[in-house]
């Protein structure tokens, strides 16, 4: 009885050690992408991380969307691409004596709205200089951030409120929805060729290849204006495995 128990515990210990060693070796073979540089949008800084560079640029722009950051970091262990990670833990970032949403400053109209949202009253003659400053900083940031014309921007986001794919339908020219998928998990494309490849898959996918009459300052519209392919991968906060699978699906589908 004692010998049988001893052999059982010994086998369990060997199995445990084997798994630990396997995970350790896997992590060494696929290391977390190191910081290779940084860029900034004024005082908003982004670390640049990658193992193998390519003209696919991934961006984590909202500091409170932690799942999105982890999904990109894991994805870049296995696939080429350059990751841009905002240095913030919050959704909004400081600007002058107020706050702004960093994904609402990629147009002058979007900048105006986010500045007025967090600071409704501005002293006479102070709002225009603030907008002018953002215009200059935006041009410099996009020049450094955007890949070449054959490249791709992949933004990774999370939601935890009421936002879902239905909110994007009014901006979309083509739609492919899967009733088995949560409406909070979806993909936005700005290039029709990407949409056609991704729409045959299992996920909710929409195409937004026409600029809206009112630009809210999102990076997606800036990419479209500049002729850069853009994909947004949106999932619920905490659904990391789902988001990692969606990123893998996108890359494998586009590479076919």
3D architecture notes:
This protein is of the alpha/beta class and 256 residues long. It folds into two domains: 1-30; 33-254, Aminopeptidase (3-Layer(aba) Sandwich). The chain is built from seven helices and eleven strands. Strands 1-2-4-3-7-11-9-10-8 form a nine-stranded mixed β-sheet, sandwiched between helices. A two-stranded antiparallel sheet has the order 5-6. Helix 2 crosses helix 7 (240-254) and helix 3 (108-118) packs across helix 4 (127-145). The longest helix is centred in the first third of the chain and has 28 residues, at 2-29. The chain is globular and about 55 Å long. The N and C termini lie far apart (58 Å). Residues 14-28 have low confidence and may be disordered.
Quick tags:
256 residues; alpha/beta; Aminopeptidase; 2 domains; 9-stranded mixed sheet; two-stranded antiparallel ribbon; 7 helices; 11 strands; globular
Query: How many domains, as an integer?
Result: 2
Strand share of the residues?
Answer: 15-25%
Large-scale geometry = globular
**Poorly predicted runs:** 14-28
- The overall strand count is 11
- For this structure, what is the CATH class of the largest domain? Alpha Beta
Q: Order of strands in the sheet with the most strands? A: 1-2-4-3-7-11-9-10-8
Secondary-structure class: alpha/beta
The CATH architecture of the largest domain can be given as 3-Layer(aba) Sandwich
Radius of gyration: 21 Å
Mean pLDDT: 91
The major pleated sheet works out as:
9 strands, mixed
């Amino acid at each position: 009885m004692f010998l049988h128990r001893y052999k059982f515990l010994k086998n369990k210990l060997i199995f445990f050690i084997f798994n630990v060693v396997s995970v350790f070796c896997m992590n060494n073979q696929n290391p977390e992408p190191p910081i290779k540089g940084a860029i900034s949008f004024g005082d908003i800084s982004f670390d640049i991380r990658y193992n193998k560079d390519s003209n696919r640029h991934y961006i984590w722009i909202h500091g409170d969307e932690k799942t999105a950051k982890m999904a990109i970091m894991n994805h870049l262990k296995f696939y080429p691409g350059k990751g841009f990670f905002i240095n913030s833990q919050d959704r909004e970032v400081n600007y002058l004596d107020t706050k702004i949403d960093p994904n609402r400053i990629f147009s002058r109209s979007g900048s105006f709205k986010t500045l007025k949202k967090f600071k409704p009253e501005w002293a006479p003659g102070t709002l225009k200089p603030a907008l002018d400053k953002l215009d200059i900083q935006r041009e410099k940031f996009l020049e450094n951030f955007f890949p070449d014309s054959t490249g791709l921007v992949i933004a990774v986001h999370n939601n935890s409120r009421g936002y879902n794919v239905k909110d994007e339908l009014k901006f979309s020219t083509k739609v492919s929805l899967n009733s088995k998928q949560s409406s909070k998990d979806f993909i936005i494309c700005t290039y029709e060729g990407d949409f056609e490849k991704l729409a045959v898959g299992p996920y909710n996918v929409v195409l937004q290849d026409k600029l809206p009459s009112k630009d809210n300052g999102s990076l997606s519209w800036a990419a479209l204006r500049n002729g850069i392919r853009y994909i947004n991968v949106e999932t619920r906060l905490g659904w990391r495995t789902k988001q990692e699978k969606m990123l893998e699906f996108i890359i494998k589908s586009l590479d076919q």
